[in-house]
Design brief:
Layout lengths: L10 E5 L4 H11 L4 E6 L12 H11 L2 E6 L5 H15 L4 E4 L14 H26 L6 E4 L8 H5 L2 H20 L6 E6 L7 H7 L11 H11 L10 E3 H7 L34
Parallel strand pairs: 1-2, 1-4, 2-3, 4-5, 5-6, 6-7
Helix pairs in contact: 1-2, 1-8, 3-4, 4-6, 8-9
Length: 286
């Protein structure tokens, strides 16, 4: 997915951008010459996780963009407001919001303690609502405003709830924010969409869930970054209320070789389906 320059000078506010999918989207936009607000918690090096808001800022600048690292826990309204104000002071506005920050725990009901339940709901659903709400007054001033949330299509199959109900409710809360905001702000021309992967994406969360074998049957975060880029370059008034799947977006954009996104090319036909995806990735178009 080649860069077109359409995001040059645009300001993106990305939560959870210190690593993984959020970082990949930030770097993709930076190649256009975009301004990126890195809204994440990691300011000091983590013993087990790579990257901080400052190391990512350096990578963004090196890629051709402008960066603003901000310490933000999306559960903290004041930190969000402070980061948004800093973005306005530095870049003059906000054009795009990426709700990427998320917490996961694939536990069943009896194994889910309420501290973990509250963490997922406060980061996933409440965080998405709050970040979108605080940024919307500035998005309404943009000529092509987008909110893109990393959340799954709303599928009410009982199995998605029975295996990890607390997590499902928290992620579907993010998707319901997409559904509601898209319709509420359709008249004002704000695009609000969701993006979700067909296969697992190799991130710290996947390593946490599947261990050292997490990458074997996964795609690189760049597949989500390229799909996000294709969406964000669209006319906001003509593209809202969608629950996009990464590979569908890329195929529609003319990308013919999805095999390049596989972490291990030898397993390109053995990709593991992402959570909430019913279709076996081995049958996906490549």
């Amino acid at each position: 997915m080649k860069n077109t320059g359409k995001l040059r000078g645009k300001t993106l506010f990305i939560t959870g951008a210190s690593r993984g999918i959020g970082k990949a989207i930030a770097l993709k936009a930076a190649c256009d010459g975009a301004n990126v607000v890195i809204a994440a918690k990691t300011a000091e090096p983590h013993p087990k996780l790579p990257g901080t808001i400052y190391t990512v800022a350096a990578e963004i600048e090196e890629a051709g963009g402008k960066a603003l690292p901000c310490i933000v826990d999306v559960r903290d309204e004041q930190q969000i407001r402070k980061a948004v104000e800093a973005a306005i002071d530095k870049f003059g506005g906000i054009d795009i919001v990426i709700n990427n920050a998320s917490a996961i725990s694939k536990t069943q009901t009896l194994q889910t303690d309420m501290k973990r339940y509250d963490l997922m709901h406060n980061i996933n659903t409440r965080g998405t609502f709050l970040v979108s709400k605080v940024c919307l007054p500035y998005l309404l001033k943009s000529d092509n405003p987008h909110i893109l949330t990393m959340s799954p299509p709303l599928n009410m199959k009982a199995e998605h709830f029975s295996i990890h109900m607390a997590y499902t409710i928290a992620k579907y809360g993010m998707s319901m924010c997409v559904l509601g905001l898209a319709e509420e702000f359709r008249p004002q021309g704000v695009a609000v969409n969701a993006l979700w992967p067909r296969s697992t994406i190799h991130t710290a969360a996947v390593d946490m869930l599947y261990g050292s074998k997490g990458a074997l049957h996964s795609r690189k975060p760049e597949v989500m970054a390229d799909a996000a880029y294709a969406i964000l370059c669209r006319d906001a008034r003509q593209c809202t209320g969608n629950f996009f799947i990464d590979e569908d977006v890329l195929l529609d954009a003319g990308v013919k070789n999805l095999a390049k996104y596989a972490c291990h090319p030898e397993n390109v036909h053995k990709l593991k389906a992402a959570i909430f995806m019913d279709v076996n990735c081995a049958a996906s178009k490549l």
